[in-house]
Amino acid sequence: MNTVESINELRTLRRQWHREGKTVGFVPTMGNLHAGHLTLISAAREQCDIVVASIFVNPLQFGKNEDLDTYPRTIDEDKAQLDRHHTDVLFLPSVAEMYPRGLDEQTFVQVPGISDMICGNSRPGHFRGVATVVSKLFNMVQPDRAFFGQKDYQQLQVIRLMAADLSIDIDIQGIPTQRAEDGLALSSRNGYLTEEQRQIAPKLYACLLNLKTDLQNDRQPLSVLIEKYTAVLAQAGFKPDYIEIRHADTLEPVGDMDNQLVVLVAAFLGNVRLIDNLTVTRPEA
Length: 285
Ligand code: PAF
Description:
This protein is α/β, with parallel strands linked by helices. It is 38% helix and 20% strand.
C-alpha cells in the first residue's frame, strides 16, 4: 500500500488511473478502523480496480466540547489493516494540507434543512463540517464510487443530497451496519465505554428492534412509541438524546401515508454518545 500525504501526489496518481481507464473506489474515514470500515474497503475492493482510503480526523465536524483532542488515533494499526485488506493507496493529509487558509477562512458546503435536524440539532455545525470535508476529498480523489456506513444514516443522506445538489458524478454506496455479536453497532467511540457501560450498550439496538416490531404491528401514535422507548432507554441506564421516526429518504417527519421509515436514536452512557438506526417498512394502513 502506498501512503500519500500531499494532494499533488494524489492527483498525479489519479491522473494515471484515469489515463489507464481504471475505476476508483473511495472509503473516507477518521481512522481507528474496525470491522465496519473494513467491510467498506472490501466492498470497494470487489467493485473497483483501485481502492483509496483516507484517514483524516476532521476538526471542522467536532463541536467545541466534543472529543477532537481525545479521538482515538491508531495510525500504525490502521495502516496494517488497510494493507491486509488490499487497499492500494492511503491518503493521509495533515490539517494544514486540508485547510491551508485555516479553519475560520475555509469555504463551507452547507446542505440546508437536513443538516439542522436530528443529530444536526444536537451537534450544530457537524454536518457542515462533514459536507465540506467530504466534498473536498471527492475533488481530490475523484473516485467513481464512494462507500459509507449506514450506521451514520443521516450523514449518508446529507452526502447523497450534497452530491445531487452539486452535480457530483460519484456513485454513493451505503453499506449495512456491522454489529458485535450482542448487537452493538461497531463504532470507534465504543472504545470509550467502561466495562459496565459496554454491558448496557447493546440495549440500544434491542430498543430499536422492539420499536420496529411495534411500528409494524399496530398504528399507535408515534409520540406514544417515542415516549415509551425513551423511558425504556432511561430505565436501562442511558441518558436519551433523541428517538426520531422519520421518512427513510428525506428524514422529514412522517405522515400517516408514509410507510418507508427510519428510526434513529442517540443516547449517552456517561459522556459517550452512541447512535444507531433501523429502517422499517410499515404494512399498508
Ligand atoms: O464517518 C466518518 O468517519 C466521517 O464523518 C467522514 C465521512 C470520514 C468525514 O470526516
